[in-house]
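In response to the reviewer comment on reproducibility (Comment 2.3), we provide here a single inverse folding case reported in full, input and output, so that an independent group could reproduce the run without further information from us. The structure tokens appear first.
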């Protein structure tokens, strides 16, 4: 497995692979990799001839008061995980390699991004769409793998690829959880011992909401209220949102039917803003 930091090196390697007729799978990440990322990489390895992982903490997708500086980083451990999972190339650029002097082009979206995380993180999806477009143009993958953990991001990327005619198959992969249910996240490392205990309330609310709908509840307000009440039993939890939306458009629904997404964001102890979700076809 190679680790490279320049766009030219990625292009040269991918060009050589394509000449041999190899199909390229791609997993974009911000690093500090865990079993969630690993599941995406293993799937990319299994379904393609070669797998590329990018590790880039993209400054453009962080707001001015967010955790860009403190975001955890550990390239050595990440490289070990990638190699063991079977990846062939890590692209680990510096911000200056991705954003040259005078950079002023962006990929932006309306509608889908004006809901859920887009409301409390106004610059986030413009940064995500711009960097993912750039990474797609650099790596030129046949398939790209994204986690359902970031359900809105997955919907946004699928829409972007359709709208901009990018010839890349987007593959969504299930959420990987800790033993107690908490969705794995690089940001879980921000949690103190007490906050970590209380963070389990996100997945508890997710499992409860899912069960209510599976048991026949069709009123989104009833499900959301019950989930909010459960989350509020934890004194360190502050709800950002609990929403039930159409899985493709991210628009609120009046009735639970069709492809729905229930997504939540909760701040725990002022230490970490965590997200979780489930989707159902009703
Ligand atoms: P990140 O490094 O947080 O930008 O995540 C990189 C990719 O890994 C994204 O597509 C995430 O949705 C995915 N991912 C992160 N955590 C998980 C998880 N617990 N289960 C599945 N996928 C995940």
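Designed residues, in position order:
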């Amino acid at each position: 497995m190679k680790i490279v930091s320049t766009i030219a090196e990625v292009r040269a390697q991918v060009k050589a692979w394509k000449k041999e007729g190899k199909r390229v799978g791609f997993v974009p990440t911000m690093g500090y990799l865990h079993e969630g990322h690993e599941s995406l990489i293993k799937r990319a390895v299994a379904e393609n001839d070669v797998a590329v992982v990018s590790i880039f903490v993209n400054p453009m997708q962080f707001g001015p008061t967010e955790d860009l500086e403190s975001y955890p980083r550990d390239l050595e451990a990440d490289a070990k995980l990638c190699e063991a999972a079977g990846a062939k190339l890590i692209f680990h650029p510096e911000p200056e390699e991705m954003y040259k002097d005078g950079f002023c082009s962006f990929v932006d979206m309306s509608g889908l991004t004006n809901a859920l995380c887009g409301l409390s993180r106004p610059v986030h999806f413009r940064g995500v769409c711009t960097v993912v477009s750039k990474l797609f143009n650099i790596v030129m993958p046949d398939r790209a793998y994204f986690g359902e953990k970031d359900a809105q991001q997955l919907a946004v990327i699928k829409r972007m690829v359709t709208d901009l005619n990018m010839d890349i198959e987007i593959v969504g992969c299930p959420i990987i959880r800790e033993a107690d249910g908490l969705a794995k996240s690089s940001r879980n490392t921000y949690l103190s011992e007490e906050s970590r205990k209380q963070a389990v309330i996100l997945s508890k609310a997710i499992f409860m909401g899912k069960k209510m709908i599976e048991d026949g509840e069709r009123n989104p307000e009833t499900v959301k209220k019950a989930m909010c009440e459960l989350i509020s039993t934890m004194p360190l939890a502050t709800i950002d949102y609990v929403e039930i939306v159409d899985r493709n458009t991210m628009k609120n629904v009046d009735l639970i039917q069709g492809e729905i997404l229930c997504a939540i964001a909760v701040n725990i102890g002022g230490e970490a803003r965590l997200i979780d979700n489930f989707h159902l076809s009703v």
